[in-house]
Fold:
Amino acid sequence: MAVIATIERIGQFVGQTVTIRGWLYSKRSSGKIRFLLVRDGTGTIQTVVSKKDVTAEAFEDTDRLTQESSMVVTGTVRADARAPGGYELLATDLKMVQVAAEYPITPKEHGPAFLLDHRHLWLRSSRQHAVLRIRSHVIQTAHEYLREQGFTLFDAPIFTGAACEGTSTLFSTDYFYDQKAYLSQSGQLYAEAGAMAFGKVYTLGPTFRAEKSKTRRHLTEFWMLEPEVAYADLGDLLSLAEQLISHLVQSVLTHRRRELEILERDLSRLEPILPPFPRITYDEAIDLLRSRGVTIAWGDDLGGDEETIVSNHFDRPAMVTHYPLKIKAFYMKAASDRPDLALCVDVLAPEGYGEIIGGSQREDDYEQLVARLVEHNLPREHFEWYLDLRRYGSVPHAGFGLGIERTVAWICGIAHLREAIPFPRMLQRLYP
Ligand code: 4AD
Ligand code: MG
Structure:
């Protein structure tokens, strides 16, 4: 038996005989030679099957192989600058595992609804594969980076008893003993308890919003990375945000360049993503918008179009701080010199990708927080545990949530968030 190799690492085996286990991407024939493009999940390689090198049975099998048939092929690795990927395999043996039925996704154009209905197969296409590998890299790199910075991973529950980000976007479900449970909109409140226990924590998991919005920036289920830090203020948060985002982008540029090339991403838009990021206040953003002819009242939230106008001004993510307190969540701390403003930040990605991070310094004063719960009409009894964090050793603290799909969509340069997650959940999509 030859050693089993992955296509990604095939360069280590030049001149040796290896076995590749995969699926047929495409094939062409020319006389007594078959050229099979084989993928194995880590890459694709051209496999040359010559009649003279394999058994008659194996050679005949190549003609039965359809697109996506599974197969195991053994051969000698050859470096060839002209081959896609730089290597090819000269087959000495080939075994079919299953001959695939006629594959629904062909190289011709399919509409988005058809592709989404076949998401379970579409995942195998080179662009989708590239996006999801970058997603995996972003998540793994975030874990590594935060661990190196001394953060403890702290998993928040998905079933929760109350709202965190406003009651209008809650998914509810029946729970035991006539109770209602809500799917978590954010792990933040629990992360705050974690920060008081461990100093620096982060949660990374799925979050849910019953958003009736059909935009390309909204999913009903999305993943969020939420660091939360004790003894930290808004300034500390801005540094963490720009360091983390830069690290993620630079790491993808270094380790997932091949995937960025498959996606034909303009790398010159990612290369400048390094600290410091521009910081502008909400007031300045309003001035900027008005100077561009946008009619917007002070106190209005920035919509997608406004975010794009602001972010187009910069080549790096723009950190917009100090939004009006009244349009932000109940837990945000007011600025001491301007109590109508929140000590908060929205990080707007360049190229119109919109808000990738939302975060703030938290209200750490017990009385103030109680008043905010009342203002927001939130049932205090559900938040007694959260108020305890202000009763027992309250400290200034801050955190943010980074949307994984928005970050991945931006890094990949793809138009819609639905391709940045394996199985997107949207208003009208629960299948497959
Ligand atoms: O600004 P948001 O709502 O903030 C929070 O949930 C805070 N509790 C986070 C925290 O401070 N720990 O959401 C944070 C990020 C947004 O910037 C965006 O990237 C993403 O989550 N996000 C969505 N992504 C996809 N679909 C949606 N419907 C999203 N809503 C928010
Ligand atoms: Mg937000």
The chain has a mean pLDDT of 97. The CA atoms of residues 364 and 394 lie 6 Å apart.
